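Form 7-S
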Amino acid sequence: MKRQTGSVIVSALLILALLLVMGVGYLAQRASQYRGVRQTAAGASALAIAEAGLEDALGKLQKDPLFPPHLSAEEPVFEYHEDFAQVDGSPLG
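Output:
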């Protein structure tokens, strides 16, 4: 009887170990999928911001022939930026 009880305990532990390994594998797969979705969304957001920037610059060039201003020795670099926000008002980018 003791021998049978011992084999049942060993079998139960092996099954639990197998279930644990399967659970950890499943969680790792889900985490990987989540990272992929997050990276895809970030890429789509970056592309949309880049396209909006190009459209903005094109509009400014078409409306103002002096855009961007001529550079001088005092200001050798022209900088231009705009802040973007999501629909809820939180910063984007």
